[in-house]
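Folding Problem: From Residues to Backbone Shape
Fields: amino acid sequence; protein C-alpha cells
RECORD BEGINS BELOW THIS LINE
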Amino acid sequence: MLIRAVICREIIISIKNFVFFGTLSSVTLWVLKAAVFTQPPVYYKKNKRKFLSAGKEKTQP
C-alpha cells in the first residue's frame, strides 16, 4: 500500500509539473510570437520618419 501511495504521489507531482511547465512554455511561446508579430510594425510606425530618413541617407551619398 505504501509503495502504491508513493507511486501515485510521484505520478501526480509529475503530472502537475508537466502541466505547469507545459502551460509555462506555451505562454512564453505565445508571448514570443506576440512580440515578434506585433513589435516590428508598431516600432516601424512610431519611427517611420527615422527609417525613411535613414533610407534616404543610405541611398544618397
